[in-house]
Amino acid sequence: MALSFSFAIIGAMILGLTWLPVASALFLKPGKTKKRNISDWIMDIAYKSYLPSIKWSCNHKSIVFGAALVSLIFTGVLFSKMGGEFVPTLDEGDFVIQPVLKTGTSLSKTVEMTTKMENILIKEFPNEVEQIVSRIGAAEVPTDPMSMEEIDMIIKLKPKDEWTSAETKEELADNFKKALSVIPGIEYEFTQPIEMRFNELITGVRSDIAIKIFGENLEYINKKHSK
Predict the structure, then answer these.
(1) DSSP-based three-state secondary structure for 59
(2) Based on the structure, what is the number of domains in the chain?
(3) Using alpha carbons only, what angle is made at residue 142 by residues 139 and 144, rounded to the nearest 5 degrees?
(4) What pLDDT is recorded for position 67?
């Protein structure tokens, strides 16, 4: 997706600098009119304002070139120190917690652990958590295949002005992790409802970062997956 977007931008830039000006000159020629209109007056004013700056720039090429070079270097340094994301994260206002239980956990044990997690969050964060809905395993129509130890815990949050334990979602997620750390042997992945589905559609996994291992040695691959 990133490569496709980059190639599209580069192609549009090349097209805009080559074919588009030629096509505009060939097909967008102004018609011959005897009477001057308001657009002619606007273009005359713009031309009279623009011409002196062009003449000055042509007579002081070293200054213009030096200023452009300094601006380019400054922009490069500034760009190298900036953080960035290809697709910025959209704040959906809610959380999805995906507890990772041990493989082979029974349904009854999964339900018990999920209920315990829900009670901890509701009890310790009454001003932040409005409602929690959990989904375990797959439905009768397995459009989203999940095993019995996989959980989607969707947390509907209250408005931010009612929060008392955190000011940002990142801080609230850390507080959730600390509160749930009383349950040993479980890893938690925090995401958002739409973001989770988007990641699943693109990579087939639920997290932002995924590592897929391929090969013929199944024993070696199984060892790597178990880690």
Answers:
(1) helix
(2) 1
(3) 95
(4) 94
Whole-number percent of the chain with pLDDT over 90: 11
Find out whether 99 and 152 touch, Cβ atoms under 8 Å. Answer: no
113 part of a folded domain: yes
Q: Is 109 domain-assigned? A: yes
Residue 177 CB contacts under 8 Å (≥ 6 apart), including other chains: 188, 190
Helix-helix angle 2-17:19-27, to 10 degrees: 40
Quick: pLDDT tens for 102-142.
777 788 888 888 899 999 999 989 889 888 988 887 766 65
Beta bridge partners of 191: 96
More confident residue, 51 or 85: 51
Helix axis angle, 169-180 to 107-124, nearest 10°: 120
Q: What is the pTM of this model?
A: 0.52
15-29, 92-106, 196-210: the lowest-pLDDT one: 196-210
Q: Structural domain of residue 127, as residue ranges?
A: 94-192
> Can you name the residues that pair with 131 across neighbouring β-strands?
156
Does any domain span residue 213?
A: no
- Residue 117 belongs to a domain: yes
For residue 132, give the CATH number of its domain: 3.30.70.1430
| 100 SS3 class | strand
Burial status of residue 158 (CB atoms within 10 A of its CB: 0-12, 13-18, 19 or more):
middle
Q: Is 215 helix (H, G, I), strand (E, B) or coil?
A: coil
The residue among 210, 208, 220 whose CA lies nearest residue 89 is 208
Q: Are 96 and 155 in contact (CB under 8 A)?
A: yes
- 95: exposed, middle or buried (C-beta count within 10 Å: 0-12, 13-18, 19+)? buried
